[in-house]
């Protein structure tokens, strides 16, 4: 007969086959009172905690990656929704600017030489391209009619002189007789008046002789200044008239005998736009370039300006004088004038790619401290080509967006692109 100690433990009963467990249970029930069912199976006290920790670990292992993926997705969506922009830093504009303008090269003096007397060309001494000095004879005109008129005028002068001498001697005698009361006062005054009339006629005759002699002196056509003959419109035997000539191939009056130009110094006229006119004066540095001489600079000076804006072109006419002693530049040629304009108070400059043209005016987009785009209306000053001067509306500390795009708006979220290391 089994004692209580001989009874199988609950673990043995649980691990035994079902038929054995039933027999053993009957035996134990017969030997003593039965124990509660909860006492039959013992549970480890840390088992629930371990199971909870295991469940929490499994939950954490599955939730954390999902949470990280969700956070990364949210960040990517936000990054893609913000406009990526690059910045450009406003820099001080240069104080000086070179203004390039086309210019027309003209002689310092350009004169048309006309005949001052009528006649035929007896001889000409200079042709085109000839360098002449002031007073040098260019041509000789034959004036037979004028010579005859001068001879007649001189004869008239001699007659007037003889009449005057006779009238003077008569008047002198009558004044002597008047002192002895041999003649009346009236007769003496008459002789004196006749002498004065004869004197006036003599002066008129002399003036006529001088006039004709001056015209005869114009038979020799002389150069009025040092220069170059640029045109010859006459030939031997050509009929010329005072104030003009038909010329070789020009039958109408009014054609000049010669055309002369002074080329030792040249005038170059340029038209400066109204925006730059206030910065051009006699102190403005300038030089010329010509396509004929690549790389060569011709020193020049600003001689004068019109001090008035042309209302049709809104430009200021400026005369630039250049020394041309070597004759390199030719009158009528095309040249480029390089004017050095100086700005006493330069502002900031930006690339033209940073500008927006809106109905309210020229605008730039800047990135604020809130990471959003803000639009500023600015005023444009000087134009440097790819850069422009911003006269007003921009601060040196503004972070200006380059190539902002026409669709950018006020308060739009933006993301500044990383600056490449080479430009850091």
UniProtKB/TrEMBL annotation:
| Residues in Multidrug resistance protein MdtA-like C-terminal permuted SH3 domain copies | 350-401
Q: Which domain of life is it from?
A: Bacteria
Domain Multidrug resistance protein MdtA-like alpha-helical hairpin as annotated: residue spans? 149-210
Q: Where is this region: Disordered?
A: 1-37
GO CC, sorted alphabetically, is:
efflux pump complex
Annotated protein name in UniProt: Efflux transporter periplasmic adaptor subunit
Looking at the UniProt entry, the stretches that span the membrane are 45-64
Q: Where in the cell is it found?
A: Cell envelope
Q: Which residues form the CusB-like beta-barrel domain?
A: 270-339
The Gene Ontology terms for molecular function here are: efflux transmembrane transporter activity
